Amino acid sequence: MFNLNDKKNFLPLLIGAICGTVNGAFGGGGGSVLVPSLEYFLRFDAKRSHATAIAVVLPVCFISSLAYIISGNVDLAVALASAIGASVGSPIGAILLKKINPGWLVTVFSSITFLMGLYLLIK
Amino acid sequence: MIKYLLIALFGAFSGILGGMGLGGGTLLIPLLTTFSGVEQQIAQSANLIAFIPSSIIALSIHGKNKTFKTEGLAKIIIPAVACSVVFGFLISGIRGNTLKKIFGGFLCVLSIIQFLVGKKTGSKRTNPRRDI
Questions:
Q1: Closest alpha carbon to B29 in B131, B112, B124, B103
Q2: Is residue A117 part of a domain?
Q3: What gap in Å lies between CA B97 and CA B110, rounded to an integer?
Q4: B 58-97 residues inside an 8 A Cβ radius of A
Q5: Which residues of A touch B122 (CB under 8 A)?
Q6: A102 is a domain residue
Q7: Which residue range forms the structural domain that includes residue A96?
């Protein structure tokens, strides 16, 4: 389907594989890997990276959630409550994305994420 | 009931971040495990499932705003889907608390990368953009 010897194809394929591995193993975070990868290696601008990340992670989430269902790792009530909440928040975020520069948001968000990760590690 | 309202609230908060492409899921999962007593694997699947309707809504808005192009996307999507299924099955055999610690380490690494790349791309870029 793709010429694997073509250097131009190597980076997108590798970035996709890393994104899928992370998103499957951790149930999320694939988009967070994709956004900086697309910006840094494929030189997408920030807004295009964000929108592309959602488009890639969508089929990934859909198909890998089947793996979680088959493994019996799904609580329907928890999933449904999360889905309803996220569906309300998501369009708000998408509208905000056109209006504000995500630059300083990345700094705030990455700081919160770091503290959360540290807490989970040492708890 | 309050438990599920709180979960919906966490979902809304992560949805706002997710809609902006900031990866809200990386925050929803620890919120669920830390404050709602949800097990790691269950929180992960909840995030995966929550992402589906919310991202369709966000994407329809991005599509309208023309911030999104579909050409060349398959090159990223196909290996991503394949790897996610393999690892989705693999982690079901890991103890919840072990996976939580690995997840914590992942969050630390990820946030540092995000911070550094964010700083770099936040400054003026001189390289031309190339299409995939």
A1: B103
A2: yes
A3: 20
A4: 58-59, 61-62, 65, 67-70, 72-73, 75-92
A5: 103, 106
A6: yes
A7: 75-123
Question: How many domains is chain A partitioned into structurally?
Answer: 2
Residues A63 and A21 in one domain: yes
Q: Does A111 touch chain B (CB under 8 A)?
A: yes
pLDDT one-digit tens code per residue, A97-114: 778 776 788 888 889 999
Which amino acid would we find at residue B5? L
pLDDT score of B69 more than 80: no
Closest CA to B45 of A31, A56, A28: A28
Can you tell me the distance from the alpha carbon of A83 to that of A89, in angstroms, rounded to the nearest whole number? 10
ipTM here: 0.88
A93 and A69 both lie in a single domain: no
**Do residues A57 and A86 share a domain?**
no
Q: Which of residues 24-43 of A touch B (CB under 8 A)?
A: 24-36, 39-40, 42-43
Question: Chains A, B: CB contacts under 8 A, how many?
Answer: 421
